[in-house]
Design goal:
11 strands, single chain, mainly beta, Lipocalin, globular, three-stranded antiparallel beta sheet
Length: 173
């Protein structure tokens, strides 16, 4: 007798959102509007001898994720953050909670000229923490991104962005 197993496969590729929830509700995984295939949830009934069953690991060398973000200086410690998934957010990088997209708050702190720390909350609960670090030459931004979904399964990803255009600092001033 064959046993039928109901498998729920969820594949998530997170793109920063560094960053932002990109217009999602609390508990929903971040999605990038720059690549519509960033989050795919599939549910299928599989038989016990199905060759698709098993543990799978992404081969990063054969995979491509396209994500962009734009940081624009508005003067002083005021910035526009555009993660591509909704309207840009305007923040003052002073460490205070400020209104963000989709009912969230965004707190950004300038730790040093080459390190920023961001935190996104919904209903007072931390959903995302991002630590952005610029390389010494200012051409690369590392985003140490951690997502805390309601299901308790923390997601941690390190993104590496390359500067497009000229300038220095986070906003390319």
């Amino acid at each position: 007798m064959k046993t039928t197993i109901l498998a729920i496969a969820t594949v998530m590729v997170l793109a920063c959102n560094s960053h932002a929830l990109r217009g999602q509700d609390a508990g929903s995984p971040p999605q990038s509007q720059s690549n519509p295939a960033t989050c795919l949830t599939a549910t299928a009934a599989l038989s016990a001898d199905d060759p698709m069953l098993g543990n799978w690991k992404l081969n990063a060398q054969k995979s491509r994720l396209i994500d962009e973000m734009k940081i624009t200086s508005l003067g002083g410690n005021k910035y526009s953050l555009d993660f591509g998934g909704g309207p840009p957010e305007t923040i003052v990088a002073d460490g205070t909670d400020q209104p963000g997209n989709s009912g969230t708050t965004n707190s950004t702190t300038i730790v040093s000229p080459d390190e920023w720390r961001g935190e996104r909350k919904k209903n007072g609960k931390v959903q995302i923490v991002g630590i952005w670090t610029l390389s010494k030459d200012g051409k690369t931004l590392h985003d140490d991104f951690t997502y805390f979904p309601d299901n308790g399964k923390t997601v941690h990803i390190v993104y590496v962005y390359e500067r497009r255009g000229t300038g220095s600092g986070f906003a390319g001033d």
